[in-house]
Amino acid sequence: MSTLVKVVRYHLVKPDNLVFVPWAVLVVGFAVNVMVVATTFGGQSTIRYMGTLAALYLTFSVGGVTSITRALPLGLGLGLSRRSFYLGTVLTAVSLAVVYGLILALLQAIERWTHGWGLSMGVFRAPFILEGPWYLTWLMSFVLLTLLFVWGVWSGLVYRRWNLIGLWAFMAAQVIVGVVAALVVTWMGAWHHVGHFFVTLSAPGIAGVVALFAMLFLAGGFATIRRVAV
Amino acid sequence: MTAAISVSGLTRRYGRQLALNGVTVDFEGASITGLLGRNGAGKTTLMRIIAGHELASAGSVRVFGAEPLENSALLRRMVFIRENQIYPEFKVRHAIRTASWFYPNWCGELAETLLEEFDLPTDRAIKKLSHGMRSALGIVISLAARAEVTLLDEPNSGLDAVARRRFYDLLLREYAEYPRTVLLSTHLVDEVADLLERVVVIDHGCVVLDACSDDLRGTATRVSGRPLDVEEFVAGRLSWGRATSRSHESVVVGGVLDDADRLWARELHLDLRTLSLQEMMVHVVDQTTEDYARETVA
């Protein structure tokens, strides 16, 4: 058994954080959606987008954080190199994201087929990003889940290496990058170009942009873990 | 014989604090070495750097001739569970199962036996274990791994007297069956004295004593009696730790006392008591602390 597969098994030996919690949160959110919509907006014909899916993504991201803060120390104690641990952790996330993407695509198909669970709900659909054919839904879910997990991993690594101050700086830096980008676009009077770019960008195009960011975070995490101490 | 672990000029700085200050020491293959010293002396930092968990500021560590940091093939031959090891939200059995995948020589049978010996409930969440039980879990993993380099960080900390006794017996039995390089840091020096082939004392990040424990045995004796008699006996010998009152004096003398010395002591009505390993460590550390303070002031 290769070392990376062993790391995957390590992350899934007690699958609470990466499997049960994200889906449990989604199920509870879905149940609340159904109750609220059934009692208040019954009989609507236009789709009501719920945004509940965000809960799944966020808890998966938290799984990325704990894979570093809790699992990394024991991993190194058991004779893993940082590199093996990192690659195995990413392999875990990517494998789960592939499967979760398929499940979400299936749920979306059911949602369409049942006209939003009989209540015109859009739980597994979202305008613009999750409204195409099943394979685009799968692709989009896959890259988004990977992105958020890797972001969690990188944040966890920054915290391990530079503590809370480092984490604040890391978060602040991301906000600053966003603000600076927005200012540059404003100064250049290029907002209509940006709008045009995203509107004309097809769903695979958006998935590509997300994947690009995921790769960036992946590289950032790898650079950070190389000198992390436990 | 080449050393299993070779540490040379190892220094680790945390801001202005020197956790390790130019440590040079070798550890032979198939040996049990005690790493002794006070809290914060640098024992855990040394182990962490040997295991590649921490990076050195200067100097080098070689394990079986290679640098351990990020060396997968080498790290696989080492196990290091820290005293305050962070675990995922695991139950005991999850940690044991995980460890079993990573070590080619893992002995499941031994792990079972050890879990029973320490009364460790495998279905208990690790965060709900007492301090001693967590130590026991670290021992189970470290011994069952049968790794060529086994680093034990305060393994007996928090264990009750029965569990400690069991640990010492098990360690010796395991070691006899599968000899390996064992490094054991501890505060309970006298309890482990019989296990140790060698003793390395660290203080303020420096190695202050490095000797075979057999060679150390009986090399320091506390002499006490009437001040004049004690002074007569001690004259010309290496001595320290003098405590004097008007009618009584006690001094520690270094070096092995021969039969003639003992006869003479009896004639002077002196009381002789051999220092235990722990007392010797305390003396060595006291001495270096004085030197350290003197240097720092100067």
- Assign an overall shape of chain B: globular
Structural class of chain B: alpha/beta
Chain pair forming the biggest interface: A-B, 28 and 35 residues
Question: What is the radius of gyration of chain A computed over CA atoms, rounded to a whole number of angstroms?
Answer: 20 Å
Helical stretch tally of chain B: 11
Query: CATH homologous superfamily of the largest domain in chain B - what is it?
Result: P-loop containing nucleotide triphosphate hydrolases
- Average pLDDT, all residues of chain A: 92
Number of domains as seen in the coordinates of chain A: 1
**Largest sheet geometry of chain A:** 2 strands, parallel
Biggest β-sheet: strands ordered side by side in the sheet of chain A: 1-2
Structural description of this entry:
The complex is a heterodimer of chains A (230) and B (298). With 230 residues, chain A is mainly alpha-helical. Chain A has nine helices and two strands. Chain A has a two-stranded parallel ribbon with strand order 1-2. In chain A, helix 1 (3-12) packs across helix 5 (82-113), helix 2 (16-40) packs antiparallel against helix 3 (53-69) and helix 7 (134-187) crosses helix 9. Chain A is globular and about 60 Å long. Chain B folds into two domains: 3-214, 3-Layer(aba) Sandwich (Rossmann fold), CATH 3.40.50.300; 216-297, Alpha-Beta Plaits. In chain B, 37% of the residues lie in helices and 29% in strands. In chain B, a hairpin with a 4-residue loop joins strand 11 and strand 12 (249-254). The longest helix of chain B has 21 residues, at 277-297. The interface between A and B is medium-sized, with 28 and 35 residues.
Secondary structure layout plus pairing:
The complex is a heterodimer of chains A (230) and B (298).
Chain A: H1 3-12, H2 16-40, E1 48-49, H3 53-69, H4 71-77, H5 82-113, H6 116-120, E2 121-122, H7 134-187, H8 191-200, H9 203-225
Parallel strand pairs in A: 1-2
Helix pairs in contact in A: 1-5, 2-3, 3-7, 5-7, 5-9, 7-9
Chain B: E1 3-14, E2 17-28, E3 31-36, H1 43-50, E4 58-63, H2 72-75, E5 78-81, H3 92-102, H4 108-117, H5 131-144, E6 149-153, H6 161-177, E7 181-186, H7 189-192, E8 198-203, E9 206-212, H8 213-216, E10 220-225, H9 227-234, E11 239-244, E12 249-254, H10 259-267, E13 271-274, H11 277-297
Parallel strand pairs in B: 3-7, 3-8, 5-6, 6-7
Antiparallel strand pairs in B: 1-2, 1-4, 8-9, 10-12, 10-13, 11-12
